[in-house]
Amino acid sequence: MSEGRAAPVYSGENLLFLTDEQLRQGIEAMFFAYRGFTADPDRILADQSYGRAHHRAIHFINRAPGTTVNNLLAILGVTKQSLNRVLRALIADGLVESRVGNVDKRERHLYLTEDGRALESRLSDAQRARMRAAYRVAGPEAVAGFRQVLEAMMDTDMRRAYVRLRDGTP
Amino acid sequence: MSEGRAAPVYSGENLLFLTDEQLRQGIEAMFFAYRGFTADPDRILADQSYGRAHHRAIHFINRAPGTTVNNLLAILGVTKQSLNRVLRALIADGLVESRVGNVDKRERHLYLTEDGRALESRLSDAQRARMRAAYRVAGPEAVAGFRQVLEAMMDTDMRRAYVRLRDGTP
DNA sequence: TTGGAATGTCAACAAGACTGACGTAAACTG
DNA sequence: CAGTTTACGTCAGTCTTGTTGACATTCCAA
Prior knowledge:
The structure is a homodimer. The first copy, chain A, has helices at residues 20-47, 52-63, 69-76, 80-92, 114-138, 140-153, 156-167, and strands spanning 67-68, 96-100, 108-112. By secondary structure, chain A is mainly alpha-helical. A 3-stranded antiparallel sheet of chain A has the order 1-3-2.
Protein backbone atom coordinates (compact mmCIF):
# COMPACT_ATOMS: atom_id res chain seq x y z
CA MET A 1 0.00 0.00 0.00
CA SER A 2 2.78 2.39 0.73
CA GLU A 3 6.46 2.06 0.22
CA GLY A 4 9.23 4.01 1.81
CA ARG A 5 8.74 3.06 5.42
CA ALA A 6 9.11 -0.11 7.47
CA ALA A 7 6.60 -2.59 6.14
CA PRO A 8 3.66 -2.67 8.58
CA VAL A 9 2.74 -6.07 9.92
CA TYR A 10 -0.88 -6.95 9.37
CA SER A 11 -2.14 -9.79 11.50
CA GLY A 12 -5.45 -11.44 10.82
CA GLU A 13 -8.46 -9.27 11.47
CA ASN A 14 -6.27 -7.02 13.55
CA LEU A 15 -5.25 -4.54 10.91
CA LEU A 16 -2.78 -2.22 12.53
CA PHE A 17 -0.45 0.63 11.63
CA LEU A 18 -2.99 2.50 9.58
CA THR A 19 -1.34 5.87 9.76
CA ASP A 20 -3.36 9.05 9.40
CA GLU A 21 -1.37 9.66 6.27
CA GLN A 22 -2.50 6.39 4.70
CA LEU A 23 -6.10 7.09 5.59
CA ARG A 24 -5.82 10.59 4.21
CA GLN A 25 -4.60 9.19 0.94
CA GLY A 26 -7.62 6.92 0.82
CA ILE A 27 -9.85 9.93 1.41
CA GLU A 28 -8.24 11.87 -1.40
CA ALA A 29 -8.41 8.87 -3.69
CA MET A 30 -12.17 8.74 -3.10
CA PHE A 31 -12.50 12.42 -3.84
CA PHE A 32 -10.55 12.41 -7.08
CA ALA A 33 -11.96 9.12 -8.29
CA TYR A 34 -15.54 10.21 -7.74
CA ARG A 35 -14.89 13.17 -9.99
CA GLY A 36 -13.78 10.84 -12.74
CA PHE A 37 -16.68 8.57 -12.01
CA THR A 38 -19.26 11.26 -12.75
CA ALA A 39 -17.33 13.15 -15.43
CA ASP A 40 -18.58 11.30 -18.51
CA PRO A 41 -22.31 11.31 -17.76
CA ASP A 42 -22.01 14.93 -16.65
CA ARG A 43 -20.55 15.83 -20.02
CA ILE A 44 -23.36 14.06 -21.86
CA LEU A 45 -26.02 15.73 -19.75
CA ALA A 46 -24.50 19.18 -20.01
CA ASP A 47 -26.10 19.71 -23.43
CA GLN A 48 -29.53 18.65 -22.35
CA SER A 49 -31.38 20.42 -19.58
CA TYR A 50 -30.67 17.53 -17.24
CA GLY A 51 -28.19 17.09 -14.44
CA ARG A 52 -26.77 14.47 -12.18
CA ALA A 53 -30.05 14.22 -10.31
CA HIS A 54 -31.82 13.10 -13.47
CA HIS A 55 -29.10 10.60 -14.18
CA ARG A 56 -29.49 9.03 -10.75
CA ALA A 57 -33.24 8.72 -11.13
CA ILE A 58 -32.91 7.19 -14.58
CA HIS A 59 -30.28 4.76 -13.40
CA PHE A 60 -32.30 3.34 -10.56
CA ILE A 61 -35.59 3.25 -12.44
CA ASN A 62 -33.82 1.24 -15.11
CA ARG A 63 -32.31 -0.95 -12.46
CA ALA A 64 -35.56 -1.68 -10.68
CA PRO A 65 -38.40 -1.11 -13.17
CA GLY A 66 -41.74 -0.59 -11.52
CA THR A 67 -40.19 0.80 -8.38
CA THR A 68 -42.35 3.22 -6.44
CA VAL A 69 -41.60 6.85 -5.72
CA ASN A 70 -41.10 6.10 -2.05
CA ASN A 71 -38.66 3.36 -2.88
CA LEU A 72 -36.64 5.61 -5.10
CA LEU A 73 -36.66 8.24 -2.40
CA ALA A 74 -35.06 5.88 0.07
CA ILE A 75 -32.38 4.84 -2.39
CA LEU A 76 -31.49 8.32 -3.57
CA GLY A 77 -31.63 9.87 -0.12
CA VAL A 78 -33.30 13.09 -1.16
CA THR A 79 -36.60 14.72 -0.25
CA LYS A 80 -39.70 13.95 -2.23
CA GLN A 81 -39.93 17.57 -3.32
CA SER A 82 -36.48 17.35 -4.77
CA LEU A 83 -37.14 14.06 -6.52
CA ASN A 84 -40.52 15.25 -7.70
CA ARG A 85 -39.00 18.14 -9.62
CA VAL A 86 -36.76 15.69 -11.44
CA LEU A 87 -39.46 13.12 -12.13
CA ARG A 88 -41.89 15.75 -13.35
CA ALA A 89 -39.37 16.83 -15.99
CA LEU A 90 -38.57 13.27 -17.04
CA ILE A 91 -42.24 12.34 -17.32
CA ALA A 92 -43.08 15.52 -19.22
CA ASP A 93 -40.27 14.77 -21.67
CA GLY A 94 -41.51 11.22 -22.14
CA LEU A 95 -38.49 9.46 -20.68
CA VAL A 96 -40.28 8.01 -17.68
CA GLU A 97 -43.74 6.57 -17.35
CA SER A 98 -45.66 6.62 -14.08
CA ARG A 99 -48.38 4.00 -13.65
CA VAL A 100 -50.88 3.91 -10.81
CA GLY A 101 -50.46 0.77 -8.73
CA ASN A 102 -52.85 -2.14 -9.19
CA VAL A 103 -52.93 -3.48 -5.67
CA ASP A 104 -52.27 -0.16 -3.92
CA LYS A 105 -53.63 2.68 -5.99
CA ARG A 106 -51.77 5.29 -3.96
CA GLU A 107 -48.49 4.06 -5.33
CA ARG A 108 -46.96 5.13 -8.64
CA HIS A 109 -44.77 2.61 -10.38
CA LEU A 110 -42.02 4.06 -12.50
CA TYR A 111 -40.74 2.73 -15.81
CA LEU A 112 -38.39 4.00 -18.48
CA THR A 113 -39.93 4.56 -21.91
CA GLU A 114 -38.11 3.66 -25.09
CA ASP A 115 -36.53 7.11 -25.11
CA GLY A 116 -35.67 6.79 -21.44
CA ARG A 117 -33.88 3.53 -22.05
CA ALA A 118 -32.00 5.13 -24.93
CA LEU A 119 -30.65 7.91 -22.73
CA GLU A 120 -29.90 5.47 -19.95
CA SER A 121 -27.80 3.47 -22.36
CA ARG A 122 -25.81 6.44 -23.50
CA LEU A 123 -25.10 7.46 -19.93
CA SER A 124 -24.27 4.08 -18.52
CA ASP A 125 -22.24 3.05 -21.55
CA ALA A 126 -19.91 5.93 -20.86
CA GLN A 127 -19.72 5.19 -17.16
CA ARG A 128 -19.24 1.48 -17.68
CA ALA A 129 -16.48 2.08 -20.21
CA ARG A 130 -14.52 4.00 -17.62
CA MET A 131 -15.20 1.40 -14.96
CA ARG A 132 -14.17 -1.36 -17.29
CA ALA A 133 -10.93 0.42 -18.15
CA ALA A 134 -10.15 0.96 -14.48
CA TYR A 135 -10.92 -2.67 -13.68
CA ARG A 136 -8.69 -3.84 -16.47
CA VAL A 137 -5.78 -1.72 -15.33
CA ALA A 138 -6.13 -2.72 -11.70
CA GLY A 139 -6.78 -6.43 -12.19
CA PRO A 140 -9.31 -8.85 -10.73
CA GLU A 141 -7.96 -9.07 -7.18
CA ALA A 142 -7.93 -5.29 -6.96
CA VAL A 143 -11.54 -5.20 -8.13
CA ALA A 144 -12.61 -7.59 -5.41
CA GLY A 145 -10.85 -5.45 -2.81
CA PHE A 146 -12.34 -2.31 -4.25
CA ARG A 147 -15.83 -3.68 -3.85
CA GLN A 148 -15.16 -4.92 -0.33
CA VAL A 149 -13.87 -1.60 0.94
CA LEU A 150 -16.68 0.36 -0.70
CA GLU A 151 -19.26 -1.91 0.85
CA ALA A 152 -17.68 -1.54 4.26
CA MET A 153 -17.74 2.22 3.86
CA MET A 154 -21.51 2.43 3.36
CA ASP A 155 -24.03 3.30 6.02
CA THR A 156 -26.08 0.31 7.13
CA ASP A 157 -29.20 1.41 5.27
CA MET A 158 -27.32 2.05 2.08
CA ARG A 159 -25.55 -1.28 2.33
CA ARG A 160 -28.91 -2.96 2.59
CA ALA A 161 -30.19 -1.11 -0.46
CA TYR A 162 -27.01 -1.95 -2.34
CA VAL A 163 -27.14 -5.64 -1.53
CA ARG A 164 -30.82 -5.81 -2.37
CA LEU A 165 -30.21 -4.35 -5.81
CA ARG A 166 -27.13 -6.48 -6.33
CA ASP A 167 -28.81 -9.75 -5.47
CA GLY A 168 -32.12 -8.81 -7.00
CA THR A 169 -33.98 -9.65 -3.79
CA PRO A 170 -36.92 -7.27 -3.43
CA MET B 1 -16.79 -11.24 -7.12
CA SER B 2 -20.05 -12.81 -8.09
CA GLU B 3 -21.40 -16.22 -7.38
CA GLY B 4 -24.20 -18.04 -9.08
CA ARG B 5 -22.76 -18.31 -12.54
CA ALA B 6 -19.85 -20.15 -14.13
CA ALA B 7 -16.70 -18.77 -12.58
CA PRO B 8 -15.12 -16.41 -15.12
CA VAL B 9 -11.53 -17.13 -15.96
CA TYR B 10 -9.24 -14.16 -15.45
CA SER B 11 -5.92 -14.48 -17.23
CA GLY B 12 -3.08 -12.15 -16.45
CA GLU B 13 -3.61 -8.59 -17.60
CA ASN B 14 -6.35 -9.80 -19.86
CA LEU B 15 -9.32 -9.30 -17.59
CA LEU B 16 -12.30 -10.68 -19.40
CA PHE B 17 -15.92 -11.52 -18.74
CA LEU B 18 -16.71 -8.22 -17.12
CA THR B 19 -20.42 -8.32 -17.54
CA ASP B 20 -22.46 -5.15 -17.65
CA GLU B 21 -24.06 -6.40 -14.48
CA GLN B 22 -20.75 -6.55 -12.66
CA LEU B 23 -19.80 -3.10 -13.85
CA ARG B 24 -23.18 -1.79 -12.82
CA GLN B 25 -22.63 -3.14 -9.35
CA GLY B 26 -19.34 -1.31 -9.19
CA ILE B 27 -21.08 1.88 -10.22
CA GLU B 28 -23.70 1.49 -7.53
CA ALA B 29 -21.06 0.65 -4.96
CA MET B 30 -19.35 3.94 -5.75
CA PHE B 31 -22.60 5.82 -5.42
CA PHE B 32 -23.62 4.38 -2.07
CA ALA B 33 -20.12 4.41 -0.64
CA TYR B 34 -19.56 8.06 -1.50
CA ARG B 35 -22.66 8.89 0.47
CA GLY B 36 -21.20 7.19 3.51
CA PHE B 37 -17.87 8.80 2.84
CA THR B 38 -19.26 12.32 3.14
CA ALA B 39 -21.94 11.63 5.75
CA ASP B 40 -19.92 12.30 8.90
CA PRO B 41 -18.34 15.61 7.89
CA ASP B 42 -21.69 16.71 6.48
CA ARG B 43 -23.28 16.09 9.84
CA ILE B 44 -20.64 18.10 11.64
CA LEU B 45 -20.93 20.98 9.19
CA ALA B 46 -24.71 21.04 9.23
CA ASP B 47 -24.70 22.99 12.49
CA GLN B 48 -22.26 25.59 11.27
CA SER B 49 -22.96 27.69 8.22
CA TYR B 50 -20.51 25.64 6.21
CA GLY B 51 -20.95 22.93 3.64
CA ARG B 52 -19.01 20.35 1.74
CA ALA B 53 -17.27 23.00 -0.33
CA HIS B 54 -15.78 24.52 2.79
CA HIS B 55 -14.65 21.12 3.93
CA ARG B 56 -12.86 20.48 0.68
CA ALA B 57 -11.07 23.81 0.79
CA ILE B 58 -10.01 23.27 4.40
CA HIS B 59 -8.81 19.78 3.64
CA PHE B 60 -6.52 20.75 0.81
CA ILE B 61 -5.22 23.92 2.44
CA ASN B 62 -4.25 21.80 5.41
CA ARG B 63 -2.71 19.28 3.10
CA ALA B 64 -0.63 21.79 1.17
CA PRO B 65 -0.16 24.89 3.34
CA GLY B 66 0.80 27.99 1.40
CA THR B 67 -0.92 26.79 -1.74
CA THR B 68 -2.21 29.49 -4.05
CA VAL B 69 -5.81 30.09 -5.03
CA ASN B 70 -5.08 28.97 -8.56
CA ASN B 71 -3.53 25.79 -7.31
CA LEU B 72 -6.51 25.01 -5.15
CA LEU B 73 -8.77 25.75 -8.10
CA ALA B 74 -7.10 23.08 -10.20
CA ILE B 75 -7.40 20.51 -7.44
CA LEU B 76 -11.01 21.23 -6.57
CA GLY B 77 -12.14 21.58 -10.15
CA VAL B 78 -14.47 24.53 -9.63
CA THR B 79 -14.43 28.07 -10.92
CA LYS B 80 -12.40 30.63 -9.05
CA GLN B 81 -15.52 32.62 -8.34
CA SER B 82 -17.07 29.65 -6.65
CA LEU B 83 -14.00 28.97 -4.57
CA ASN B 84 -13.68 32.62 -3.74
CA ARG B 85 -17.03 32.74 -2.00
CA VAL B 86 -15.98 29.84 0.19
CA LEU B 87 -12.58 31.30 0.94
CA ARG B 88 -14.04 34.70 1.74
CA ALA B 89 -16.25 33.14 4.41
CA LEU B 90 -13.41 31.09 5.87
CA ILE B 91 -11.11 34.10 5.96
CA ALA B 92 -13.78 36.33 7.49
CA ASP B 93 -14.35 33.72 10.19
CA GLY B 94 -10.66 33.49 10.90
CA LEU B 95 -10.18 29.89 9.83
CA VAL B 96 -7.98 30.64 6.85
CA GLU B 97 -5.27 33.23 6.38
CA SER B 98 -4.44 34.67 2.96
CA ARG B 99 -0.98 36.13 2.50
CA VAL B 100 0.08 38.10 -0.55
CA GLY B 101 2.90 36.35 -2.38
CA ASN B 102 6.45 37.61 -1.94
CA VAL B 103 7.78 36.90 -5.38
CA ASP B 104 4.50 37.30 -7.26
CA LYS B 105 2.23 39.77 -5.56
CA ARG B 106 -0.77 38.64 -7.59
CA GLU B 107 -0.78 35.34 -5.81
CA ARG B 108 -2.40 34.68 -2.44
CA HIS B 109 -0.94 31.94 -0.30
CA LEU B 110 -3.40 30.16 1.93
CA TYR B 111 -2.86 28.83 5.43
CA LEU B 112 -5.11 27.44 8.14
CA THR B 113 -5.20 29.39 11.37
CA GLU B 114 -5.29 27.71 14.76
CA ASP B 115 -9.08 27.64 14.58
CA GLY B 116 -8.94 26.35 11.04
CA ARG B 117 -6.73 23.47 12.07
CA ALA B 118 -9.11 22.69 14.92
CA LEU B 119 -12.08 22.35 12.58
CA GLU B 120 -10.00 20.41 10.10
CA SER B 121 -9.18 17.92 12.83
CA ARG B 122 -12.79 17.44 13.82
CA LEU B 123 -13.80 16.82 10.24
CA SER B 124 -11.00 14.55 9.21
CA ASP B 125 -11.08 12.61 12.47
CA ALA B 126 -14.64 11.61 11.66
CA GLN B 127 -13.84 10.75 8.09
CA ARG B 128 -10.70 8.84 8.98
CA ALA B 129 -12.57 6.85 11.60
CA ARG B 130 -14.97 5.59 8.98
CA MET B 131 -12.18 4.87 6.55
CA ARG B 132 -10.26 3.03 9.23
CA ALA B 133 -13.28 0.91 10.11
CA ALA B 134 -13.87 0.05 6.47
CA TYR B 135 -10.21 -0.83 5.97
CA ARG B 136 -10.28 -3.05 9.01
CA VAL B 137 -13.35 -4.93 7.86
CA ALA B 138 -12.06 -5.39 4.33
CA GLY B 139 -8.47 -6.28 5.14
CA PRO B 140 -5.13 -5.14 3.75
CA GLU B 141 -5.27 -6.82 0.36
CA ALA B 142 -8.69 -5.32 -0.25
CA VAL B 143 -7.34 -1.89 0.66
CA ALA B 144 -4.55 -2.19 -1.86
CA GLY B 145 -7.05 -3.14 -4.55
CA PHE B 146 -9.35 -0.35 -3.53
CA ARG B 147 -6.63 2.22 -4.01
CA GLN B 148 -5.56 0.75 -7.33
CA VAL B 149 -9.03 0.83 -8.84
CA LEU B 150 -9.72 4.35 -7.60
CA GLU B 151 -6.48 5.60 -9.06
CA ALA B 152 -7.26 3.98 -12.39
CA MET B 153 -10.67 5.62 -12.38
CA MET B 154 -9.33 9.17 -12.14
CA ASP B 155 -8.90 11.54 -15.05
CA THR B 156 -5.28 12.06 -15.97
CA ASP B 157 -5.10 15.52 -14.46
CA MET B 158 -6.64 14.40 -11.23
CA ARG B 159 -4.37 11.41 -11.03
CA ARG B 160 -1.43 13.75 -11.34
CA ALA B 161 -2.75 15.97 -8.58
CA TYR B 162 -3.44 12.94 -6.42
CA VAL B 163 0.03 11.47 -6.87
CA ARG B 164 1.66 14.82 -6.27
CA LEU B 165 -0.14 15.22 -2.97
CA ARG B 166 0.49 11.63 -2.01
CA ASP B 167 4.20 11.71 -2.68
CA GLY B 168 4.66 15.26 -1.49
CA THR B 169 6.38 16.27 -4.71
CA PRO B 170 5.48 19.86 -5.53
C1' DT C 1 6.71 51.22 -21.80
C1' DT C 2 2.79 49.47 -23.12
C1' DG C 3 -0.43 45.85 -24.14
C1' DG C 4 -1.63 41.29 -23.12
C1' DA C 5 -1.78 37.48 -19.84
C1' DA C 6 -2.35 35.88 -15.22
C1' DT C 7 -4.33 36.22 -10.54
C1' DG C 8 -7.85 37.27 -7.80
C1' DT C 9 -12.42 39.90 -6.31
C1' DC C 10 -17.26 41.43 -6.64
C1' DA C 11 -22.07 40.90 -8.54
C1' DA C 12 -25.82 38.50 -10.48
C1' DC C 13 -27.89 34.32 -11.66
C1' DA C 14 -29.21 29.07 -12.04
C1' DA C 15 -29.49 24.31 -10.44
C1' DG C 16 -30.56 21.45 -7.02
C1' DA C 17 -30.87 20.47 -2.49
C1' DC C 18 -33.80 21.57 1.87
C1' DT C 19 -37.95 22.78 5.10
C1' DG C 20 -42.72 23.75 5.86
C1' DA C 21 -47.51 23.67 4.72
C1' DC C 22 -51.27 21.89 2.37
C1' DG C 23 -54.34 18.83 -0.53
C1' DT C 24 -56.00 14.39 -2.34
C1' DA C 25 -56.76 9.74 -2.60
C1' DA C 26 -56.41 5.27 -0.81
C1' DA C 27 -55.56 2.02 2.79
C1' DC C 28 -55.75 0.60 7.37
C1' DT C 29 -57.67 0.14 12.11
C1' DG C 30 -60.30 0.27 16.31
C1' DC D 1 -67.95 3.29 9.70
C1' DA D 2 -65.04 7.22 11.38
C1' DG D 3 -60.65 8.57 12.16
C1' DT D 4 -55.87 7.95 11.24
C1' DT D 5 -52.07 6.82 8.55
C1' DT D 6 -49.71 6.29 4.18
C1' DA D 7 -48.31 7.62 -0.58
C1' DC D 8 -47.93 11.08 -3.56
C1' DG D 9 -48.09 15.73 -5.60
C1' DT D 10 -47.48 20.73 -5.26
C1' DC D 11 -46.57 25.65 -3.88
C1' DA D 12 -43.53 28.80 -1.65
C1' DG D 13 -39.27 30.10 0.34
C1' DT D 14 -34.43 29.38 1.61
C1' DC D 15 -29.55 27.78 1.30
C1' DT D 16 -25.43 25.91 -0.81
C1' DT D 17 -22.77 25.70 -4.58
C1' DG D 18 -22.04 25.90 -9.02
C1' DT D 19 -21.99 29.16 -13.29
C1' DT D 20 -20.82 33.86 -16.35
C1' DG D 21 -19.67 38.51 -16.75
C1' DA D 22 -17.19 42.59 -15.47
C1' DC D 23 -13.25 44.56 -13.27
C1' DA D 24 -8.78 45.65 -10.60
C1' DT D 25 -4.10 44.55 -9.90
C1' DT D 26 0.25 42.70 -11.10
C1' DC D 27 3.56 40.63 -14.05
C1' DC D 28 6.00 40.01 -18.28
C1' DA D 29 7.50 40.31 -22.94
C1' DA D 30 7.50 42.63 -27.40
